[in-house]
Specification:
The chain is an all-beta fold. It has strands spanning about 30-35, 45-50.
């Protein structure tokens, strides 16, 4: 489900684009998510907590 909340994750040094997504199916429920502020890639990591 689209939560309507968007965060920019690319490029990591000056995020200005929304190109990273987490997709689920009917067997998982998104509980929470957050963006990690770490320069380990050209994208900022997106972490999601899912309920099975």
């Amino acid at each position: 489900k689209n939560t309507g909340v968007y965060h920019y994750t690319f490029p990591a040094d000056q995020p200005s684009a929304r190109i990273d997504y987490i997709f689920t199916n009917k067997y998982t429920k998104p509980v929470d998510y957050y963006i990690v502020d770490a320069n380990v890639s050209d994208h900022l990591p997106v972490v999601s907590i899912l309920e099975l």
